[in-house]
């Protein structure tokens, strides 16, 4: 491990796992991996090991940048203790009308930009002339 990667792990939280996460991984149990490569772990509630928490701790090590919207809905439910069975342990098949998960595209090159947006690459539509600006002198 190079000095640069050690410094990156210490001072950045958005590049995957940090030093603190790696320390926690030592006692954690791997639960599963989603289709995006994010890896999920848990630390069961054991009063001898984990007296500070009343429920098991659950966390994710992101495959890329730490972006919460990159977690698919099934894993999101497990992470927030909505369901107890992780998606890796259940047989779920998506319905025909369900779209595949996409992370939040805001601020990225392929983000949605409507026709009137200043960031849109398309030509803004011409004014139709049916608008008259307000003036305090009127």
From TrEMBL:
Residues 91-138 are annotated as: Disordered. Residues 93-113 have a biased composition (Basic and acidic residues). Pfam families: NDUFA12. Keywords: Ubiquinone. InterPro entries: NDUFA12. The keyword Magnesium does not apply. GO terms for cellular component: respiratory chain complex I. The keyword Phosphoprotein does not apply. It comes from the Bacteria. GO terms for biological process: response to oxidative stress. This is NADH:ubiquinone oxidoreductase subunit NDUFA12. The lineage of its organism: Bacteria, Pseudomonadati, Pseudomonadota, Alphaproteobacteria, Hyphomicrobiales.
């Amino acid at each position: 491990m190079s000095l640069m990667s050690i410094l990156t792990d210490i001072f950045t939280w958005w590049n995957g796992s940090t030093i603190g996460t790696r320390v926690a991984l030592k006692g954690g149990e791997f639960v599963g991996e989603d289709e995006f490569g994010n890896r999920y772990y848990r630390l069961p509630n054991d009063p001898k090991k984990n007296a500070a928490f009343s429920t098991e701790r659950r966390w994710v090590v992101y495959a890329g940048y730490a972006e919460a919207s990159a977690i698919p809905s099934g894993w999101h439910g497990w992470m927030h203790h909505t369901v107890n069975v992780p998606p890796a342990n259940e047989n779920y098949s998506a319905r025909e009308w369900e779209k595949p998960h996409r992370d939040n595209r805001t601020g990225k090159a392929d983000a949605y930009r409507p026709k009137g947006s200043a960031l849109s690459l398309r030509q803004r539509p011409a004014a139709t002339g049916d608008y008259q600006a307000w003036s305090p002198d009127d």
